From TrEMBL:
GO cellular component: cytosol
Example of a GO MF term: hydrolase activity, acting on ester bonds
Gene3D superfamilies with a match to the protein in the record: Metal-dependent hydrolases
InterPro entries referenced in this protein's UniProt entry, alphabetically: Metal_Hydrolase (IPR032466), TatD-like (IPR001130)
Source taxonomy: Bacteria, Pseudomonadati, Bacteroidota, Flavobacteriia, Flavobacteriales
Official protein name in the record: TatD family deoxyribonuclease
Pfam family, any one: TatD_DNase
UniProt-listed PANTHER family: D-AMINOACYL-TRNA DEACYLASE (PTHR46124:SF2)
Source organism, top-level taxon: Bacteria
C-alpha cells in the first residue's frame, strides 16, 4: 500500500491510502480519508467562526484524519498576527480531539516551532511540502515535527541530500497539487535513500493517523 498524506485530488485507487485536503465550506464526508483546515491563503475573518464550527462538527468522524492544511505563510499580504488568530484555534481543536495537523509553512518555521512549544501541543504535526535546507529540517525534527516530501523532491536535486538526513520515523510523502502520482514520489525517494519505503511509511501512517 502507498500512503499519500496530502493531496487535493481523490484518485479512488485501491492501492493508495490518501488524505484528501478539503476546505470547511465544501466538505464531502463520504471520502474514505480526508483532512479539513482553514488555509492561510483563503482565510476570511467573517466566516472564520463558522468554518471552525464545521471542523468541530466533523472532526470526530473516523475518516477525518487530520486538521489542515492550515499554517503560516510570510509571503502573502495577510499579517502574521491575523494568520495566527486563525491557526491557533485550529491547533487547539486538533489537540482537544487528539487529531494530527497538516501544516502549510512558508518562511515561518520559527513561529510554528514557538507556537507548538507555547501551546504545549502533544499531537503529531506534519510540515507538508518540505523544501528547505537541512538546518531548517534539523530544527523541525528536533522539535518533533514530521516532514512530508513531494513536489520539491521531484523538482530540486538539492533536496535529495536533505531527505537523507531525515529520521525515517518522521518521514511522509505526498503529491499535493502535482501531476505526478504518489508512486513516482515513492520511487524518487526510494532511489535517493536506496531503501524500500513502503513498510516504513505504512508504520508512520498507522502511528500518526490511525490511532
Ligand atoms: Zn495542498
Amino acid at each position: 500500500m502507498h500512503y499519500n498524506i496530502h493531496t487535493h485530488h481523490f484518485s479512488n485507487n485501491s492501492e493508495i491510502v490518501e488524505l484528501v485536503n478539503q476546505y470547511p465550506n465544501e466538505i464531502n464526508t463520504e471520502l474514505p480519508n480526508f483532512t479539513v483546515g482553514i488555509h492561510p491563503w483563503y482565510l476570511n475573518e467573517n466566516t472564520f467562526l463558522d468554518d471552525l464550527a464545521v471542523i468541530e462538527n466533523t472532526i470526530q468522524l473516523p475518516n477525518f484524519k487530520a486538521v489542515g492544511e492550515c499554517g503560516l505563510d510570510k509571503r502573502i499580504e495577510t499579517s502574521i498576527e491575523i494568520q495566527k488568530k486563525i491557526l491557533i484555534p485550529q491547533l487547539l481543536l486538533a489537540e482537544k480531539y487528539k487529531k494530527p495537523v497538516i501544516l502549510h509553512c512558508v518562511a515561518a518555521y520559527q513561529e510554528i516551532i514557538e507556537i507548538k512549544k507555547e501551546l504545549k501541543l502533544t499531537i503529531p504535526m506534519v510540515i507538508h511540502g518540505f523544501s528547505k535546507n537541512s538546518q531548517v529540517a534539523e530544527s523541525l525534527i528536533k522539535n518533533g515535527f514530521y516532514l512530508s516530501f513531494g513536489k520539491y523532491l521531484l523538482q530540486n536535486p538539492e533536496l535529495e541530500n536533505v531527505l537523507k538526513t531525515i529520521p525515517l520515523n518522521q518521514l511522509f510523502l505526498e503529491t499535493d497539487m502535482i501531476d505526478q502520482t504518489i508512486f513516482e514520489v515513492y520511487s524518487k525517494a526510494e532511489h535517493v535513500l536506496n531503501i524500500n519505503l513502503e513498510p516504513i511509511i505504512e508504520e508512520n501512517y498507522n502511528r500518526v493517523f490511525n490511532q
